[in-house]
What does this fold into?
Amino acid sequence: MKPQLLALAAGLALILAACASQAPIRDNAPGTAPAAGSDEAELWYAMERAETELQRSPLRVRDPALNEYVRKIACEVSGEHCKDLRVYVMDVAQFNASMAPNGMMLVWTGALLRARDEAELAFVLGHEAGHYQALHSLRQWRRIKDTTAALSVFQVLAYGAGAPTTAMLGSLAGYATLFKFTRDQEREADRLGFQALVAHGYDPRAGVDLWARMKREEDTRRYGKPSAAFSTHPATAERLADIAAAAAAVPDPPHERRRDAYRAATRPYLEHWLDAEVARREYAASLLVIGELLKDSPAQDRGVLTFYLGEAHRRRNADGDRAAAARLYAQAVALPGTPTATWREHGFALRDAGKTDDARTALQRYLSEAPQAEDRAFVQRELDKLGARP
It folds into this structure.
């Protein structure tokens, strides 16, 4: 960290340590802000500095239509606190959403890829809004007593000023991990989000469906730390049971999922998000995520999903993966919505299988559909190696 940023972090830590623990928790009425000079005001100041950097981030998705759509759902589940929110959709392939104490909500595109409908996204955003409404960040901050612990938090936050975008984004999205909400606070956020979900007519089982899939994805991680979605929450089995019990207890439950509206808002990004998902190189998770999306998909999405399922196999390149990828490419070229790149990969798979004529046809199809492709010269050289058609 640069010396001036370290000094800023130390100064913020000392200020907060001096005024933190004894002040009463304010009534977090919609449209209100902390009192000047309070520890909460200083906490907001730190996040507002980081938010200024975030607003310039190249990872920020700036499409007005998608941002407005996500904000609409966030506003539904946050009620009158909608006026306090600034929602940022960030082009990051992992599943995560978070909300800073000053009203800054981050939604990663990995979460949008994994959700199936508005109801599932509303469950996620309602949970984050619940943390904000209950002032959980402030309550947790006041549990931090020693200056060393306080400094570690603000070193991370201050590092965002002028730091690489990915480091700054990680700091913001990870602030909840640093504060480590208690299980009771996580349960309270779930309860508040669940109540908002049902109040707006969404199916109360949306959270059960989403979290069950996330649990299956988490189970693919044999090594390493838990993902951001699980690092600060109660045990997943416990949480699933709690959500399922709450859903079962709703009398005459609503069944609104708004899947068509969700697909219309997110479909323009599907190929980009799938490409980013495979690029994470968490292939076991990607195979599960894309495979489950394929099972749930409308017919017009099956081409792109089948292609990227093949891509996950090809890039992993374990035993049997090349053959699996070849089968999937062959299926994808016959499906609606398949990307142009499918013809290239299908052609290379046919070449490797010794099917020269079919490979030539597929590669020529790729070049005809993508005349300005960046890899055109490379593909043409590979086509030339196959020789002229007899």
Remarks:
- The first strand starts at residue 86 and ends at 90.
